[in-house]
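Friendly challenge for the regulars: who can give me the structure tokens for this chain first? No prize, just bragging rights.
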Amino acid sequence: MDILGTSLRVCVSDLNASIGVYERLTGAEAIRFQRSGVAVAAVGCFFLMSGPEAELSVLRKITATLAVKDVDEAVADLTAVGADIIAGPLPTPIGRNLVARHPDGSIFEYVDRKQDAGA
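First reply, four minutes later:
Bragging rights claimed.
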């Protein structure tokens, strides 16, 4: 599997206030979107997330988001090393994602940017 990059997940209580801090630190402009009941801002290598505690408590269990070339390849490699696919692959606004628990118990999200994700 080709890992193209990593994004760190940060749960914040005030998304608007946090965006300015991370924009200044990274020099990147925030890209905002909504995922279920959670407001998200992608700023550089950070995913800032704010929303109901019930949803954030689930998201906090995911160590990081890994951008990969192809989620299907990730499934094959993850399965080969004994990881459990606990969600997905599912379409997202920009591609597909899955959540996997590695044999050591770590949980990661894997995403790709397939153009035909909604097809």
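The chain has a mean pLDDT of 91. The longest strand covers residues 3-11. Your move, everyone else.
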